[in-house]
Design goal:
With 485 residues, the protein is α/β, with parallel strands linked by helices. It is built from 17 helices and 21 strands. The protein has helices at 16-27, 68-73, 106-114, 118-143, 152-162, 166-171, 177-187, 199-207, 226-238, 288-291, 293-301, 339-349, 394-410, 416-419, 437-440, 444-448, 471-483, and strands at residues 9-12, 32-36, 47-48, 56-57, 83-85, 90-92, 100-102, 210-211, 214-215, 220-221, 242-245, 249-255, 258-264, 269-271, 275-277, 306-315, 331-334, 359-362, 377-387, 420-426, 455-457. Strand 8 and strand 9 (214-215) form a beta hairpin. The longest helix is centred in the first third of the chain and has 26 residues, at 118-143.
């Protein structure tokens, strides 16, 4: 069969992970084919059509987990990647106007927290130091192909945190509901509940990330998220990769216990001894027997009823919040009570929206005015614990969700609804979630390798927590290349 191999490697999925994987393989001298089912590359970083001069991504508007080695090794800065908002502060909005602003400066943050709890203000520097120290100790496991867990005191802390939900962990440090409710939003990444084990570890994982040399930072690319896609696309093209859109990989071609190529939906068969998949559900490309009984049960157990949903608002003017003055070029969390997380999760599991929803949002146009016409803005919101399979269907739920999100933000930004010119609700990704503690505590190699020789995962679900990173792509490409030497 080797005589019929048309390529050295095939990458399925043209989001940022797939593009990074293709670029690495091409740099290594491989003849690479990348297949993207949609008509554009980029996935969540691709453009959504909002019209009238607005430039918006189909998903995230911020980056916090982009692998520094991917940026350096693929020379993304030379290819146009710059950051306008280099570090966004995290602001917990409060109806009483006593907003909490969490900045890099521990003293400034403590002053903001002190309005709610002097004890928590004094505790904050110790918490942040311990969080960041443990996060750095976890980098070998999370950033390398075969890194190890930390030892000594860090291992003892890790063992404790891995068994805790984020809320329980934060309860052990703080008393202020305002502070804990703000921090909990990031703990619910990957379909996790803030009450279940893994969500505390998700906070550590997030603190281990680095953007523009700053640990735990959140940044906005200059020119929008499409700039990242364009930089990776250019890297893949210059590495000699063949890039095809509108080409859906229907199934994998197997030769005994190893991969031999990809059957495309059009009927074309492409052969290669290496296949890297960036698609969310690898199981859709394989017959059930190829997965093994244990893996089939794992996939069924991990089916998630919870989803994160993006909401884009185009505004004729910037919103204004009452209370303590806060910079609008921040990242905002709207979840005033801890009970909101639990009630929203319970409702979503029943296929409906909770009465109140945890919401995070940014206004990227305040950092980069090129994304909208002069004087106008984009508000990009992420809503947590939305039903993946709503009882009334997505057409009805989208209208209800838009109304809920606008009303929730308008309670703190009066007049918001009058400034809205357009609303776009983005359907949730077809995700496997939720993530598990064992998955988060495995090495990069264990997360990208499969039981089928030559087949690797390289997408967001091969990360410890799903995110726009490229790290799994880097690791998967390196292992695949090494295996052929």
């Amino acid at each position: 069969m080797s005589a019929y191999h048309a390529y050295d490697a095939i990458v399925i999925g043209g989001d940022t992970s797939g593009l990074a994987a293709a670029a690495y393989l091409g740099k290594a001298g491989k003849r690479v084919l990348l297949l993207e089912a949609q008509d554009k590359f980029g996935g969540r970083c691709g453009a959504a059509n909002l019209g009238d001069g607005f430039s918006a991504a189909r998903g995230a508007h911020t980056l916090y987990a982009l692998d520094p080695r991917v940026v350096s090794e693929l020379k993304l800065a030379r290819r146009g990647l710059r950051f306008e908002g280099r570090e966004l502060a995290l602001t917990g909005l409060r109806g009483d106007g006593k907003h909490i602003v969490i900045r890099r400066d521990a003293h400034d943050t403590a002053s903001s927290i002190a309005v709610h709890s002097q004890r928590d203000a004094e505790t904050w520097p110790r918490f942040r130091t311990e969080l960041f120290d443990l996060a750095r100790a976890m980098r070998p496991l999370w950033w390398e192909s075969r890194g190890d867990l930390p030892s000594g005191a860090e291992k003892q802390k890790l063992d404790r945190i891995a068994r805790m939900g984020a809320l329980a962990w934060l309860d052990s440090w703080f008393e202020s509901e305002a502070l804990k409710a703000t921090l909990c939003f990031d703990a619910a990444d990957g379909g996790l509940s803030v009450l279940e084990p893994g969500s505390a570890l998700a906070l550590v994982w997030r603190a281990a990330q680095e953007i523009s040399g700053l640990q735990g930072a959140v940044a906005i690319p200059q020119g929008g998220m499409a700039v990242l896609t364009d930089a990776l696309l250019l890297a893949a093209k210059e590495a000699g990769c063949e890039l095809r859109t509108g080409m859906r990989g229907e199934s994998l071609i197997l030769d005994g216990g190893r991969v031999a190529g990809v059957q495309i939906q059009s009927g074309e068969a492409c052969f290669a001894p290496i296949v890297l998949s960036a698609v969310r559900r690898l199981s859709t490309l394989l017959p059930p027997a190829a997965l093994g009984i244990a893996h089939q049960r794992t996939m069924a157990r991990r089916a998630s009823l919870l989803a994160d949903v993006g909401v884009l608002l185009t505004l004729r003017s910037a919103p204004s919040f009452g209370g303590v003055a806060v910079p609008l070029a921040n990242r905002f969390v709207l979840a005033e009570k801890l009970e909101i997380y639990g009630s929203a999760e319970m409702a979503a599991r029943e296929g409906r929206l909770g009465d109140e929803l945890p919401i995070s949002f940014v206004i990227p146009t305040l950092s980069d005015s090129s994304l909208a016409p002069p004087g106008q803005h984009i508000l990009s919101a992420l809503v947590r614990s939305v039903p993946r399979h709503p009882v009334e269907g997505w057409a009805v739920l989208k209208k209800d969700l838009a109304t809920r999100v606008v009303a929730a933000i308008e309670r703190l930004a009066p007049g918001l609804s009058r400034a809205i010119s357009n609303i776009e609700i983005l359907s949730p990704d077809n995700d496997e979630g939720p993530i598990t503690v064992p998955h988060m505590l495995t090495s990069g190699a264990e997360r990208v390798e499969t039981r089928i020789a030559g087949l690797f995962r390289c997408g967001a679900n091969a990360e410890p927590v799903p995110a726009i990173s490229g790290r799994a792509a880097r690791i998967a490409a390196a292992i695949a290349i090494a295996g052929q030497r």
